[in-house]
Specification:
By secondary structure, this protein is α/β, with parallel strands linked by helices. The chain is built from seven helices and five strands, in the order ααβαβαβαββαα. The strands form two sheets. The chain has a three-stranded parallel β-sheet, sandwiched between helices. A two-stranded antiparallel sheet has the order 4-5. The longest helix has about 40 residues. The chain starts with a helix and ends with a helix. The model has no long low-confidence stretch (mean pLDDT about 90).
Length: about 170
């Protein structure tokens, strides 16, 4: 059974998987709406759909959840389409023992990198907002000149030179 084999491979590789098995499109939709997942492993062939359709649905909903497509036959066209639709990896069942642990590890690492990137972006935006607030509220006149062109003037500077806007300075 593919599910038991997958569980055994993941456990042997140091993962502690909690699998939710959806055997068709309807079961998948119910599980996807009601559960929280770290990774989705999908067989390519499903009774009423295929793994690429599942992947498209997930991405259409805006989810960046890691997705690994598993298939019994290695077809380059399916692998190419899976990657173009946003799959993290494509694993052929014949090589499941060798490829699946690495694919899951890489997919989870991508999620962690994305979380870190989002946190850094948030911190940068907060820092930029604090800096802007400080510069705009200080009573000292501040200007920024780039390539001999005035590109920023805070309200205190504009008040000092008695102009309403930065555009008025350039005129």
């Amino acid at each position: 059974d593919d599910v038991e084999l997958t569980l055994a491979i993941l456990r042997r590789s140091g993962f502690d998987p909690h699998l939710i098995v959806a055997r068709d499109q309807t079961e998948f939709e119910v599980a996807f709406q009601s559960e929280r997942f770290d990774v989705i492993l999908s067989d390519y062939f499903l009774p009423d759909t295929n793994g690429l359709a599942i992947l498209q649905q997930i991405r259409k909903e805006g989810s960046l959840l890691p997705f690994i497509l598993v298939t019994g036959e290695g077809r380059e066209d399916i692998a190419d389409e899976a990657v173009s639709l946003g799959a993290d990896d494509y694993v052929i069942k014949q090589y499941l023992r060798q490829q699946l642990p690495k694919a899951v590890k890489n997919a989870l690492a991508r999620v962690e990198r994305e979380k870190e990137r989002q946190q850094l972006l948030q911190a940068l935006q907060e820092s930029e907002s604090r800096y802007r607030s400080l510069v705009e509220s200080t009573p000292e006149g501040i200007i920024v000149v780039q390539k001999n062109r005035l590109v920023f003037a805070n309200p205190a500077f504009l008040h000092m030179v008695q102009l309403p806007t930065l555009e008025a300075v350039a005129a």
